[in-house]
Amino acid sequence: MAATAAQQKTAAAEQEEVEHGPFPIEHLQASGIAALDVKKLKDAGLHTVESVAYTPRKDLLQIKGISEAKVDKIIEAASKLVPLGFTSASQLHAQRLEIIQVTTGSRELDKILDGGIETGSITELYGEFRSGKTQLCHTLCVTCQLPLDQGGGEGKALYIDAEGTFRPQRLLQIADRFGLNGADVLENVAYARAYNTDHQSRLLLEAASMMIETRFALMIVDSATALYRTDFSGRGELSARQMHMAKFLRSLQKLADEFGVAVVITNQVVAQVDGSAMFAGPQVKPIGGNIMAHASTTRLALRKGRGEERICKVISSPCLAEAEARFQLSSEGVGDVKD
Amino acid sequence: MSSSAAHQKAAAAAPADEEEAGEVGPFPIEQLQASGIAALDVKKLKDAGHCTVESVAYCPRKDLLQIKGISEAKVDKIIEAASKLVPLGFTSATQLHAQRLEIIQVTTGSRELDRILEGGIETGSITELYGEFRSGKTQLCHTLCVTCQLPLDQGGGEGKALYIDAEGTFRPQRLLQIADRFGLNGADVLENVAYARAYNTDHQSRLLLEAASMMVETRFALMVIDSATALYRTDFSGRGELSARQMHLAKFLRSLQKLADEFGVAVVISNQVVAQVDGSAMFAGPQIKPIGGNIMAHASTTRLYLRKGRAEERICKVVSSPCLAEAEARFQISPEGVTDVKD
Predict the structure, then answer these.
(1) Which residues of B touch A55 (CB under 8 A)?
(2) Which of A66, A158, A339, B243 fits as disulfide partner to A219, beta carbons 3.0 to 4.6 Å?
(3) Of A24, A52, A58, A26, whose CA–CA distance to A39 is shortest?
(4) In this predicted model, what pLDDT tens digit does every residue of B189-231 receive, in sequence order?
(5) Residue A16: in which H helix or E strand, if any?
(6) Where are the transmembrane segments (chain B) (predicted)?
(7) What does the alpha-carbon distance between residue B35 and residue B27 come to, in Å, rounded to a whole number?
């Protein structure tokens, strides 16, 4: 049963599988769950059958108004629709060959990424200020709307801005480069400003309800860690900060699994000024500790080169080699270096 | 009786031993019917997750009593029948030594790493890999998925691999690249790996039941859980839930050990780390230690600590083992998986 269900329902964002894609939670009514219970699940933030299947039982028990017997019935119904068992690596490989990758705008950068930013997983960009993180995010907001044959994702973009650096006029400039209609491009980007870490997490619930309505290809959180640095201060609050961040990143991964969006998060850095300061200046490392490090599937380090050049290095990835690529920032966004 | 039973069934201590012990290996639970247990009761045992006679023999009586539809008298009868088939008594260390000499070890792909492991990853026990991000845990897991399929004389396990992925980092194309290196057919290699994605800790535990039913059918040499602890970090938060987390984790690890004992697979789990930022921060930066506390520490038989060296080099250190010395080995990560360092 697991193998055939997996054949029918593939997890990543594939164009021909859109009709199979994430099941809206109303599908559970066909399996005998009362409409009232389905509404309770929806109010608790579970908009798809996948979301219910992926949630641990104890979290479902906490939803008001759903008894233990009902929870078991719901889990059983959800497990029938969503593949949760074993499949062979060959089948997974066949599915993975069709994962959409969103072009970054620079061919050299796409090359070290084996095609572009992968949908269905979390990519983390970190680097000092002016290293190009936000520019790359803006470029992706446009390229994700391109048709598949041009390296796009044929979907909308969602932008959660924690630093107040989102500039729609940049999107218009980049849209011109790809020959897209500026007004349409802006219309296809859902934007929200996050004011604190709790708000940032709540925005994800709203994002889930939007993603079930229309097809989104990209989700950006710029920056995922900025608010944590000031909402939680000092060693005393460190563990609370890490727990909150862990939950936030887990929710992001859940969205990537459910809807097959490419999740791109930017991260700030900290300079380590002890010890090795003698040798080569302060070492720059991304913040968020091991929680962040283990949560992102692909980690990219960006740094400034000469003039408008930027260099991107693959730091951690399950399948990409550690390589560097140079790209350039211009009024048209991220592009290849013009020699 | 115990020594002759031990002699007949070499499978108990090292089930993945010899190829000729395959027919002795784990007994499918239907064999209990030959001992007079009703077919209906056997089916109830199977539905409760017991696929082999060993599984029933290793299970405490109180857990068997909880299975619906089997009375106390029947439980005693079942336990008696299972104990006749599975050696549960004393044997001499000499015999155990002879059995252990034939335990299969799966090569890691790097000769230096195999050397400090005295042959490779041991089957029938749990090996834990821990390290920071990009230390090579997932790459080593992928390489083992291929090497476990190699013939015994090439250091393989001649069996399939089972991969439970909690982080979404499984990449079949890596398996294809590694398969080329060993001259194996890529499509066959992929077909021999059973893969499942775990979405929460309850699901992760349920997958083990499915794994057991698969292992009775075909011979598996390796089982990888990458990573065993990632989901625990977010399913259970804070000190208040710590004890619930540890209990759940303990049950999960116990089930893994049971699978290793029953079927003689090599169980490899990868673990995340936490940085300890107090105290010793003055000296050498935060100390890295694996998560899971003492529950994890005591459950894994062999603990390996991986860290990044220069560029593609990685260093593996044996941190805890009943018989390996604390030694370090350098290896390299390349498109062909884990290899020796090319000087």
Answers:
(1) 200
(2) A158
(3) A26
(4) 999 999 999 999 999 999 999 999 999 999 999 999 998 999 9
(5) none
(6) none
(7) 13
